[in-house]
Amino acid sequence: MDLQAFLSRRVVTPEGIRPAGVLVDGEVIRNIVTLDQIPSEAKIVDFGKSAVLPGLIDVHVHINDPGRTEWEGFETATCAAATGGFTCVVDMPLNCVPATTGVAALEAKRAAAKGRCWVDWAAWGGVVADNQQNITKLAGAGVRGFKCFLVHPGIDEFTMVTEQQLRRALPYIAKTGLPLLVHAELPDGIDAATKNLAGADWTEYSTYLQSRPEESELSAIKLLISLCREYRFRLHIVHLSANQALPALRAGRLEGLPVSVETCPHYLHFQAEAISRGKTQFKCAPPIRGAENREQLWSALKDGTIDLVATDHSPCPPEMKRLTEGNFQTAWGGIASLSVALPVMYTEAHARGFALTDIARWMAEAPAKLVGCQLQKGKIAAGYNADLVVFDEDSEFLVTPERLHHRHPFSPYMGEKLKGEVKATYVRGRLVFANNAFHGKPEGRELPA
Ligand SMILES: [Zn+2]
Q1: What is the SS3 assignment for 25?
Q2: Distance 284 CA to ligand 1 centre (A)
Q3: How far is the CA of 426 from the centre of ligand 1 (A)?
Q4: pLDDT score at 1
Q5: 417 to each of 202, 403, 413, how far by Cα in Å?
Q6: Contact 316, 408 (CB under 8 A)
Q7: How far apart are the CA of 386 and the centre of ligand 1, in A?
Q8: Average pLDDT in the 184-188 region?
């Protein structure tokens, strides 16, 4: 591939936003230069006033492949990722069959991904009730870390772990040096709240919200922090929704514990008060909480208590959302947002005075650190992969099914008016998406070990 020069008046680098040319040599950024330093042999692509951001990395995606490809799959998930400005996605170990709890299952996932990915990808391994002996082998085979649930994950073949089972796994996890991602809700509070709601109207969102109290997140996080202190493993809290847990997380970090935290666009955009009766497309776990809670999550992003934003892209066939009966108890929980997460984040962040450098930190740089690819991806800098997103901040659009490129184009974002639009996505120097069309072939690859 020849030398390319991507010009923009707004190149988003870790040092700030400035007019620059990003020189790309094959798959890698050679340098970032001023506009008068562009070598004459470079092929110039000028994006004008559209911003150029580092390719986003989504550390929380459910691709469901192999095994549940009627829900999603490598091809559709990575198409959706490319349209949303993501150049790397990390797949969760459940929902696929077999679940990624051993090396053979990881190999089955690799076989399913082969030749079908539009962006780069990597895998998390699963920690379940009885696979402690597989942890070291999975790490050696190339997973980037592990995921477990402290509550039933909604999928019977991927078991939750009790504190005792987790204690058996933690020495192995700590030894790998890889992070453990935890769905932090404890079942006791949820079971008690649900029991109290017998006879309640489950088409009301407030019923579902009451069934998953903040206290369940808080007690799980307190337990995890004490385990982190004891075993010194890298703890990552996925999809934090409850602001009540923020003080415990701040204290853990102040103490110097290796704790990181993510939240999701849906917790930062929607509010429980506005979710109408029967609108089960909004169901996810933990639940979308109230407007005041949402603002606390934004404050925690600002002060660094929350490190990063991941989508928790979790699609399913529309029937499973039970949209006709609108029952929040029986509907599948999960929100698919790969195609729109960046505009959602930009819309909300811009309104609160944040800059694109903040979004690049939350959605590229910090995720790269979690995944362990921070020397190759997550920044626009010399020597890094030429993963680039061209983003027009002035453009506005309404979310329609044509904008959603995952398998079943429905989402709670439908009909939302969003600010900012992905104009083009480059993966390691190759154009994969521009102006609503895909280019080239699915040449995404798994992150190298
Ligand atoms: Zn998830």
Answers
A1: strand
A2: 9
A3: 26
A4: 59
A5: 29, 12, 9
A6: yes
A7: 28
A8: 97
Determine the longest span between alpha carbons in the chain, in angstroms: 73
Residue 170 CA to residue 182 CA, distance in Å, equals 12
* Average pLDDT of the residues in 348-372: 98
Partnered with residue 261 across adjacent β-strands are: 237
Distance 337 CA to ligand 1 centre (A): 12
For 81-131, the pLDDT digits (tens) are 999 999 999 999 999 999 999 999 999 999 999 999 999 999 999 999 999
Extract the tokens encoding 109. Answer: 């996932």
Please state the separation of Cα 244 from the chain's center in Å: 22
**From ligand 1's centre to the CA of 149, what distance in Å?**
10
- Least Cα distance to 236 among 143, 369, 337 occurs for 369
- What is the whole-number distance in angstroms between the Cα of residue 144 and the centre of ligand 1? 16
- Amino acid in the structure at residue 284: C
Q: How far is the CA of 71 from the centre of ligand 1 (A)?
A: 14
Query: For residue 7, how far is its CA from the centre of ligand 1 (angstroms)?
Result: 37
Neighbours of 56 (CB within 10 A): 33
How many whole angstroms from 182 Cα to the centroid of ligand 1?
10
Question: How far, in Å, is the centroid of ligand 1 from the Cα of 314?
Answer: 6
DSSP 133: G
Element spanning 390, H or E:
strand 388-398
Tokens 């092929």, residue located: 43
Q: How far is the CA of 69 from the centre of ligand 1 (A)?
A: 17
Torsions phi, psi for 444 (to 5 deg): -65, 150
Is the pLDDT at 156 greater than 90? The verdict is no
38 CA to centre of ligand 1 in angstroms? 43
pLDDT tens for 247-272 read: 999 999 999 999 999 999 999 999 99
- Compute the distance from residue 448 Cα to the ligand 1 centre, in Å: 24
DSSP 3-state assignment of 419?
Answer: strand
DSSP assignment string, 313-358 = B----GGGGTTTTT-TTTSPP-B--TTTHHHHHHHHHHHTT--HHH
β partners of residue 309: 263
Task: Kindly state the tokens that stand for 93.
Answer: 């170990």
- CA of 238 relative to ligand 1 center, distance in Å: 8
For the cut 70, the answer to whether the pLDDT of residue 225 exceeds it is yes
The alpha carbon of 58 and the centre of ligand 1 are apart by a number of angstroms equal to 11
Distance from residue 400's CA to the centre of ligand 1 (Å): 24
Q: Which residue has the tokens 């066939």?
A: 317
For tokens 């009301």, name the residue.
204
Is residue 96 a contact partner of residue 63, using CB atoms and an 8 Å limit? yes
